[in-house]
């Protein structure tokens, strides 16, 4: 009986030790798991930039990456900074992502955490622990401009147009990245219709959808047949303004064609989600080049144009696709606002 008791105690001790090892191993595996957090200066639900970014994190999560998206009011920059400092101090994230409006915050916080890895998209910061990601929105906008010029002047295929060579860009703010959209759009339009008139109107922010709506109606009253949305969340007002005026619009960042399917002829995709997913994969594989800038353009599916098939005939798509091939091959150089 004594021998059995001793044996039972020994087995219990071994089992307890094995359980402890198992718990510790599990904790270690959880700690080692790749993790990514997005510190936002805005909210989800814009059906554009932020929602596109979210698709990249969702794809990474399916691969086993732990993710979190920290939303914040666009009118509360103090919270943006607090969130960035909190996740940086926590030490629990393999990669911290952040984007537009966060340049000064990241410039202040990243040097304080030299071992922390950051991915800064849609902007650039030259620090050794920051991978900067930018997009050739000028290339995608070149295609959007070419399509807008065709749609404005081809009444047979685009019956809502007057046939006059008049189009418009309604944009959020006069920033270099927004000017890059505009430069490419104008070049694409003038390549197709050299005498085309391109109105450029700035809202003054990226969140006032009502003002965007009103300015779109003004652009259309001034003759614009097609309006290009370059306004982030405020752009939803642009699309509705064009639809209510029974004219055409081109969406941006995400596929917005379904929001007003009788009026939105295409969307210029700025593939934020693709770049986020790709960046996470580069970090996982040890191939991420921190301290450098990576550009995503037409050649690597960083930008593109998705058509509303119900409104854009195959013959028009073929013309735009020819232009795309010239840009990808290098035969055609798209102008940029960045020198």
TrEMBL record:
Similarity field: Belongs to the BMP lipoprotein family.
Listed SUPFAM superfamilies: Periplasmic binding protein-like I (SSF53822)
Claim: Membrane is one of the keywords in the record: yes
Keywords: Cell membrane, Lipoprotein, Membrane, Signal
Localization of this protein: Cell membrane
Signal peptide (from-to): 1-30
Name listed for the protein in its UniProt record: ABC transporter substrate-binding protein PnrA-like domain-containing protein
Transcription is among the record's keywords: no
Source organism of the structure: Mesorhizobium helmanticense
Domain ABC transporter substrate-binding protein PnrA-like: from-to ranges: 35-327
GO CC field: plasma membrane
Membrane topology reported for the UniProt record: Lipid-anchor
């Amino acid at each position: 009986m004594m021998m059995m008791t001793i044996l039972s105690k020994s087995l219990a001790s071994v089992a307890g030790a094995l359980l402890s090892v198992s718990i510790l191993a599990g904790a270690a595996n959880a700690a080692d798991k790749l993790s990514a957090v997005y510190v936002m200066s805005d909210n989800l639900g814009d059906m554009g930039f932020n929602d596109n970014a979210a698709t990249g994190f969702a794809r990474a999560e399916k691969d086993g990456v732990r993710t979190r998206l920290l939303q914040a009011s666009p009118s509360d920059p103090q919270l943006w900074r607090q969130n960035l400092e909190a996740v940086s101090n926590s030490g629990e994230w393999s990669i911290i992502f952040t984007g537009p409006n966060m340049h000064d915050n990241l410039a202040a916080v990243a040097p304080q955490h030299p071992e922390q890895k950051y991915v800064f998209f849609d902007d650039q910061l030259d620090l050794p622990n920051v991978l900067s990601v930018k997009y050739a929105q000028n290339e995608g906008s070149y295609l959007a401009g070419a399509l807008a010029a065709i749609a404005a002047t081809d009444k047979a295929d685009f019956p809502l147009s007057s046939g006059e060579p008049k189009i418009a860009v309604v944009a959020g703010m006069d920033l270099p990245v927004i000017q890059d959209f505009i430069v490419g759009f104008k070049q694409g339009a003038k390549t197709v219709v050299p005498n085309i008139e391109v109105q450029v109107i700035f809202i003054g922010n990226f969140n006032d959808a009502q003002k965007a709506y009103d300015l779109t109606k003004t652009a259309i009253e001034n003759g614009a047949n097609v309006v290009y949305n370059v306004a982030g969340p405020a752009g939803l007002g642009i699309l509705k303004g064009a639809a209510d005026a029974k004219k055409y619009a081109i969406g941006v960042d995400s596929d917005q064609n379904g929001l007003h399917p009788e009026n939105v002829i295409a969307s210029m995709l700025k593939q934020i989600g693709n770049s986020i997913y790709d960046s996470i994969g580069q970090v996982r594989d040890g191939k991420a080049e921190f301290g450098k800038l990576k550009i995503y353009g037409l050649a690597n599916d960083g930008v593109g144009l998705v058509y509303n098939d119900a409104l854009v005939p195959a013959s028009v798509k073929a013309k735009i696709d020819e232009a795309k091939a010239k840009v990808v091959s290098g035969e055609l150089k798209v102008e940029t606002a960045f020198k």
